[in-house]
Amino acid sequence: MHTGGMDVRRSVGVVVVAAVSVACSGGSDAVDPTVPETDTPPADGEVFTEVESGGSVAVPSSDDVEPVAESIPPVPETGVPGLDSDDAFCRAWSEYAGSVQALSLAWAVQPPVAASVLEVAASDAVTDAVAAMAADLPAAIETNRQALTVDVPGPFLRRAERARQALIDAGLGDDDIAALGDAWLAALGVAGLDAEDVEIDVATDVAAPLDDAAARFREEVPSIVEDPTLDTTEFDISPSLDYIFENCPDRGTLAGNDVIDG
């Protein structure tokens, strides 16, 4: 997974659960030798049904038919899947990975002034999301903790820390910075991952300090698409992505993985 500086793409995954169906076709007037003619009473859990040949065949009763597995909901085509998940880990994963994808797109297609404002505003949300992933990490992927919550997000968290410091230097306090993070997630949920012009709702007295912080940030830090430290492909988080595929609403698409059912 290359969550920083990754190829910005999103695919819609559709899970197909196959159901077993039984088709019965009628034969000729001749008696089918494979169908026994019997008066033997049905065993428990079976009923006899008349067939066109005049014989009968035992079929399972409805009580013994194994239920068809419920389909896993497909990945939504709009918004950011998982931002409102009831699962704390899945929600935190969507906040982090969704932010990285959207900010990567912003740096790729928007002017640096606009992209830097978004990344600086999102800094608190990104940091909190990674902390929440670590706090709510499922036991099934505990052995992947270092790679998922430290190694892979590390370079992006360092950018977030630089952004936060720029906000502090511009005169904003913890509450203001947290509010910016909330505004970023709200805007992300509305705009989705493919939006090329995300707009965040910023308080009037925060707008100027945010612009000042963004100006300092882009002077000191390269864009996401040019930052070589964001290449984290050396770290293996495939166990975590497997878990996310099976348990989280985005099914791994936020990591840039296509979901293909063959």
Put the structure in a nutshell.
This protein has helices spanning 88-109, 112-135, 145-151, 154-169, 174-191, 204-220, 238-247; strands at residues 46-50, 56-60. With 262 residues, the protein is mainly alpha-helical.
Strand proportion, as a percent range, falls in under 5%
Structure annotation, total helices: 7
Q: Describe the global form.
A: globular
With strands numbered from the N-terminus, the spatial order across the biggest sheet is 1-2
Spans where pLDDT lies below 50 across 5 or more residues: 1-38, 45-62, 64-72, 257-262
Q: Mean of the pLDDT scores?
A: 77
Query: Quick one: how many beta strands?
Result: 2
Radius of gyration: 27 Å
Order of helices and strands: EEHHHHHHH
Instruction: Give the termini distance in whole angstroms.
Output: 22 Å
- Quick one: biggest sheet? 2 strands, antiparallel
The secondary-structure class comes to mainly alpha
Helicity level? 40-55%
Describe the fold and architecture.
The chain is mainly alpha-helical and 262 residues long. The chain has a domain at 88-255. Helices cover 44% and strands 4% of the residues. Strands 1-2 form a two-stranded antiparallel sheet. A hairpin with a 5-residue loop joins strand 1 (46-50) and strand 2 (56-60). It starts with 45 loop residues before the first strand and ends in a 15-residue tail after the last helix. 36% of the residues are buried.
